[in-house]
Amino acid sequence: MPLPSLSHGAKQCTALTKRTKQPCKNPAAYGCRTCRLHGARKNIVSGKDHVNFVHGKRTLEAQLEQSATSRRLQQIEDAMYLLNMTSATRTRGRKASGYFRIKSLDEIKKIII
Ligand SMILES: [Zn+2]
Description:
The chain is mostly helical. It has helices spanning 60-82, 105-112.
């Protein structure tokens, strides 16, 4: 992880060193008042405030939503095979978490609603 640079406007650590009682000269960690040696990262922020947040496409909520969408599409494919709407080859690969195979018309009604 790149460290902030004091020459580029980063804040300086606010802690005093134990030995000399002088202010620490290290740059403060991102989003913290102190450097890594003086207790930074004790309150790591999450979501948009996290330093590594870029676009939000890989957040836990986005991943769960993508998994739910994938599961729903796989079950719609099962329903299409059950209703003889397609004769194409089945999609291969790992199924989404929470997926269960659609085997009856009652299960189709459950996923539609
Ligand atoms: Zn420090």
